[in-house]
């Protein structure tokens, strides 16, 4: 694929792309969103309490986690640095199929790797809820998550998050802007989740382990505990985390009925959770 001035554009994007190391195994990418040290990445990349962020020039910083939203899979970090080279977000509402796109990230240990492709569409995908995705045929690998998907002007149109079939999926830049503004989407449950595959004795295939529960949250008030495994809701068994995300899409106070496991894969328990509007600043799903 030939893009005029690709080398200069790629170098510009590399300079606002960072390496994010949460501690332990694995690493991902991130985007410098403002010159005063605001970094955007995926929530599943920012797993540690104080991730390490490495800039394009080799400088390393311990990052503070400002905001986590596992449902959107977005995280906002801050590092103590000024005068950084920051990304310029594009209006993702103007993205059209067929336009060229490029992704920069740190896949498999290759820092600043570039891949190019074409946008196939923007919108929801079956099985992944109602949220929109920028769908492109750029090639991603472990380590690309949290990095930028950019247009041919080097403006960020999305945050690369996962691969579905032959397409990469990125969170649209307008969704990132809403996240950073603290605009509510859906209802607040107050939990951090981790999808798991359940062993054979269970009648359910997929579960969502409650890794953390915020004190005073609807989940805590319903007596859910860390280690409990959510397996279903009013519409039936969960097949992925997106099923819970769909339940949480609508706003307004209501009673949410969930099925879960606690210490026994064969016994399905039920709980009613009183939920309402989502609160900014929570580690929530």
Characterize this entry briefly.
The protein is mostly beta strands and 285 residues long. The chain is built from four helices and 20 strands.
Description:
This protein is mostly beta strands and 285 residues long. It has 3 domains: 6-78, Beta Barrel (Thrombin, subunit H), CATH 2.40.10.10; 92-178, Thrombin, subunit H (Beta Barrel), CATH 2.40.10.10; 187-277, PDZ domain (Pdz3 Domain, Roll), CATH 2.30.42. The chain is 11% helix and 39% strand. The chain contains 4 helices and 20 strands. It has helices at 6-15, 173-181, 218-221, 241-247, and strands spanning 17-21, 28-32, 38-41, 52-54, 60-62, 64-69, 74-78, 100-105, 113-123, 133-136, 148-150, 156-164, 167-172, 187-188, 191-197, 206-213, 229-233, 236-237, 254-261, 269-277. It has a 7-stranded antiparallel β-sheet. Strands 14, 15, 16, 17, 18, 19 and 20 form a 7-stranded antiparallel β-sheet that branches. Strand 17 (229-233) and strand 18 form a beta hairpin. The longest helix is centred in the N-terminal third of the chain and has 10 residues, at 6-15. The chain is globular, with a radius of gyration of 19 Å. It starts with 5 loop residues before the first helix and ends in an 8-residue tail after the last strand.
């Amino acid at each position: 694929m030939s893009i005029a001035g690709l080398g200069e554009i790629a170098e510009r994007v590399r300079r606002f792309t960072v390496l994010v190391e949460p501690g332990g195994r694995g690493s991902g990418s991130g985007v410098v969103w403002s010159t005063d040290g605001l970094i955007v990445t995926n929530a599943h990349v920012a797993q540690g309490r104080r991730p390490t962020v490495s800039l394009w020039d080799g400088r390393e910083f311990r990052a503070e986690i400002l905001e986590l939203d596992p449902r959107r899979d977005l995280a906002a970090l801050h590092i103590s640095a000024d005068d950084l080279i920051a990304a310029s977000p594009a209006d993702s509402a103007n993205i059209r199929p067929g336009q060229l796109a490029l992704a920069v990230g740190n896949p498999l240990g290759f820092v600043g790797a570039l891949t190019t492709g074409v946008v196939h569409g923007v919108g929801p995908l079956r099985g992944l809820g109602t949220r929109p995705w920028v769908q492109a045929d750029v090639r991603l690998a472990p380590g690309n998550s949290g990095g930028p998907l950019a247009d041919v002007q080097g403006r960020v149109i999305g945050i690369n998050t996962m691969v579905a079939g032959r397409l990469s999926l990125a969170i649209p830049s307008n969704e990132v802007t809403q996240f950073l503004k603290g605009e509510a989407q859906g209802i607040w449950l107050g939990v951090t989740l981790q999808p798991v595959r359940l062993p054979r004795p269970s009648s359910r295939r997929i579960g969502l382990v409650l890794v953390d529960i915020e004190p005073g949250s609807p989940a805590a008030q319903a007596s859910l505990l860390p280690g409990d495994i959510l397996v279903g809701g009013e519409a039936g068994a969960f097949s992925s985390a997106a099923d819970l995300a769909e339940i949480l899409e609508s706003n307004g106070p209501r009673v949410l009925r969930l099925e879960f496991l606690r210490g026994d894969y064969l016994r399905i328990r039920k709980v009613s959770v009183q939920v309402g509007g989502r609160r900014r600043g929570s580690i929530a799903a």
